[in-house]
Amino acid sequence: MKAAATRLAAATAGLTDRQPDTTFKTDLAAKFRLIEEIEREPMDEDSAFDSTHGRYLSLVATINATPPDPPLPFTWLAAALLATTDRSSPGHS
């Protein structure tokens, strides 16, 4: 788990001008948790698009005889990233 999270942080940091340090990993984990919260929120004006798109993906999975894609484990990713941080560094408890 920690090795995968470390690779994820390094790859993501490689797309930016930041280093995959404790602050970066903590920020990234917070973003994953935010995505998880947004996904749990009820749909609003985009619900027609979302429900249509979801039905389309379900139909494609049925036609291809494949299971639908499972939701991404954002909470797990956030926990894994935080497990790789140095909690003794300044600004972190």
Structure write-up:
With 93 residues, the protein is mainly alpha-helical. The chain is built from 4 helices and no strands. Helix 1 packs across helix 4 (74-83) and helix 2 (22-40) runs antiparallel to helix 4 (74-83). It starts with a helix and ends in a 10-residue tail after the last helix. 13% of the residues are buried. Mean pLDDT is 81; it is low at 88-93.
β-strand percent reads under 5%
Shape: elongated
Profile the largest sheet. none
Unreliable stretches (pLDDT < 50, length at least 5) are 88-93
What is the ordering of alpha helices and beta strands? HHHH
Helix content: 55-70%
Counted by DSSP, the helix tally is 4
Find the structural class using helix and strand composition: mainly alpha
Keywords:
mainly alpha, 4 helices, 93 residues
What is this entry, summarized?
By secondary structure, the chain is an all-alpha fold.
